[in-house]
């Protein structure tokens, strides 16, 4: 098969591992910079071009699209779908998961455990918003933030009000969530492929840091997850429509709660912590499921 990886940097660990895993299984694994792609949007023969050449003969794609270029990246995925190319994660599913508020609303509708979350437009509603989530301390998150950037802990009511006032002044969209103190600055990343959690790791924030992201200096280690945590992760990925996802959970006093569902989860931390060939599992999933024209959305939505 010819499986293209949509990635802006072929030197990234995740991209390199997917290329290696695919080539080991006898596939051709071109890396295409989706930011350099341009499209001919037509009813009869839609096409994608890069560096003056038409992209042809691709059986499947693996989107590795950064949050900063979601709009353009998902447009490229959608164009591949219009051409009948199988995408391991479809454009609509990626867009759903990238919109943090929409993702939480979809998960809530399906009864999946979440931290209590408040969202408002006017600073005048701040007091009520803080009451919703149980009062300080609270976590305030920019909706556009990634890798722990734009996530602030308001330890007191006054501190939370100041952060909310600052974000409101910048016309930024943000949400306020209850602080799960019992998680102790740790979360669990469940890596879902298809309908299974194929690997799981605990991410522990460094001392004094409530965010556990590896990009913020957190440490990863192997963890055994419960059947409830496994079920929550698989259901969350299914609600988003993702075949490959990183589902981030916290252990709360009332069971696992989902923090985020990531459509382009990194392979570095999870493979090193678990010593599992996650890249190979993704390629194996594509081998079993990729067929020309097999897209639920056909570029819609």
Topology:
Layout lengths: L2 E4 L6 H12 L6 E2 L5 E3 L6 E4 L2 E2 L5 E4 L6 H13 L3 E2 L3 H8 L1 H10 L7 E2 L7 H7 L5 E5 L8 E4 L2 H13 L4 E5 L7 E8 L2 E9 L14 E4 L4 H14 L3 E9 L2 E8 L5 H7 L3 H12 L12
Helix pairs in contact: 1-9, 2-3
Description:
There is one protein chain. The protein is an alpha+beta fold and 301 residues long. It folds into three domains: 3-96 and 285-289, Rossmann fold, CATH 3.40.50; 117-179, Dna Ligase, domain 1 (2-Layer Sandwich), CATH 3.30.1490; 182-276, ATP-grasp fold, B domain (D-amino Acid Aminotransferase, Chain A, domain 1), CATH 3.30.470. It is 32% helix and 25% strand. The chain has helices spanning 13-24, 70-82, 91-98, 100-109, 126-132, 157-169, 227-240, 268-274, 278-289, and strands at residues 3-6, 31-32, 38-40, 47-50, 53-54, 60-63, 86-87, 117-118, 138-142, 151-154, 174-178, 186-193, 196-204, 219-222, 244-252, 255-262. The strands form four sheets. Strands 14-13-12-15-16 form a five-stranded antiparallel beta sheet, sandwiched between helices. The protein has a four-stranded parallel beta sheet with strand order 2-1-6-7, sandwiched between helices. Helix 1 (13-24) crosses helix 9 (278-289) and helix 2 runs antiparallel to helix 3 (91-98). The radius of gyration is 20 Å and the shape is globular. The mean pLDDT is 90.
